[in-house]
Design brief:
The protein has one helix at about 75-80, and strands at about 25-30, 35-45, 50-55, 60-65, 70. By secondary structure, the chain is mostly beta strands. It has a five-stranded antiparallel sheet. Strand 2 (about 35-45) and strand 3 (about 50-55) form a beta hairpin.
Length: about 80
Amino acid sequence: MPAPRINPARRASAEIAATDSYQSGDRVWVHRERKWQAGIISDVSSDKAVVICGSDSGVVEETMTAPHLMVRDDVYTYIDTVTYV
């Protein structure tokens, strides 16, 4: 499944999963730097999630809110094999 194409600001609230519905290790799409990227959940709270995702400079941790996250089924070896999650 390719990366989503929808703008997070245009997502219907009914299709946005609550941030705390994710668990550490869940594979997600993360909207950052104007595009959806493969990521993995590191930690969650009621309104934010810490995600690990790839960038041009390597692997980064970012704090994101629910509209910027979507469940990802695809396996992306470069991010899904991170061992410190």
